[in-house]
Fold this protein.
Amino acid sequence: MNRDSRESFTRFVAARSRGLMRTAYVLTGDQHSAEDLLQTALTKTAARWRHIDGNPEAYVRRAMYNEQVNRWRRRRREASMAVLPERAGDDPADAVDLRLALEQALLALPPRKRAVLVLRYFEDLPEAEVAAIMGCSVGTVRSQTHRAIARLRELVPDLALRLESAEI
Amino acid sequence: MTDETLRDALERIADRAQPTDDLAERVLRRVARRRRAQMAAGAAGVVAAIAVPTVAVQTRPAEAPPAATRVQQGSAEEREVAAACLREETPEDRTEGARSGLGEPDDVRLLARVRLKRGYVAAVGSERGFVLCSAVAGGQNVEEPNVHQWPSTTGKGGLWSFNTALRVDAIVHLAEAADAATTSPFGMHFVTMGRVKPQIKRVKVTWNKRRSADAAVQRGFFLAQYASGSDPVDGPGPLSEDASSTDDDAVVAVTGYDDDGRVQQTWRPSGDEGGRFTPDDCADGPGPRHPALCEG
């Protein structure tokens, strides 16, 4: 990497690291893993910096997504030991528990399902862009989204029931 | 559940992220270290290449594993199919793309393929894992090459160490074409893929709605397909807008026959795994659902 490339890469990281770190955290669920994921994705990006046209941020996001899915596969046996969110009771104070249960359920989703929700609802990207980052068709994005939501409803049935009359 | 509820939950999770210092510097140092290591490895490789003839004379070749436990070599055309399924265009893709998750470049093979009018569906892979692929002729995989690890590969028989005559490794939908899904409904392939022991010569897959087909059986693998499609989801809430589903499709049975046409084994799904299964589902979040196909 020559001096100009190093400078432009450093500027890019300084400008975008906060947002990228937030995405990494939502994908991994903890600070240490998020830092490691982002650093790995940025290392891949830096190695191809001169060949990346136009949108390096999309490249980093795609690298993070792919890396996270691969890491999860390597640890999938451990992942199966994850804990089910507890059911909340009928007390109005349980709204906080429901929110926590939803967060726990989101973090318990496998990365591909979680990633599609992160890109679609956290990054607020249109389906076509999500498909481009995930390297799949728009149909697959829709199908994955549908399955991820269905899984969340399974994991947090109380939330679905509670919101049914008002929002669904 | 609304998209606002989801967005808020994701934002709350993201808010826990702490900023990191010196990120660019750390990354650039790591890149420099990696480059130095690659240069050192390259120099060592040159030395090793020169030394090979001497070593080859002095050592006895290692005994090869039994042929039935290895993924067999393919033709040049089959290697092209493997590259298309892994979406490889440049040598760099071979080290950074899906192939790196499957082992050494030469380990990856075409496992089984069903030829269609406009292209094919296929499974490519190695002893580490496999990728399912939908492609039009001359084109690349419509889907992102998604590497699945083989379930149940313990024992001396390697990939064929499972106890039965056949086993199912994947039941999935693959999009027909990259641009076919901008509206709902759209075309999908419903694919069933797995492994067979040598005594199995023919595999018949039966789906719901009275559909069935013979699978392509090659080198200990089988793959069957039928043309499906997605249906619009008529669900409540904004998250169901434009959503589509393929939940109607399901495998009813997979039957393996020997040379004389005798049934050697019939596999039937337990629970809802007949609708969809990949090895990824073996850790599909928490809960009691652990597909029987995850086991040997």
In short: Residues 41-68, 180-185, 233-245, 284-288 of chain B have pLDDT under 50 and may be disordered.
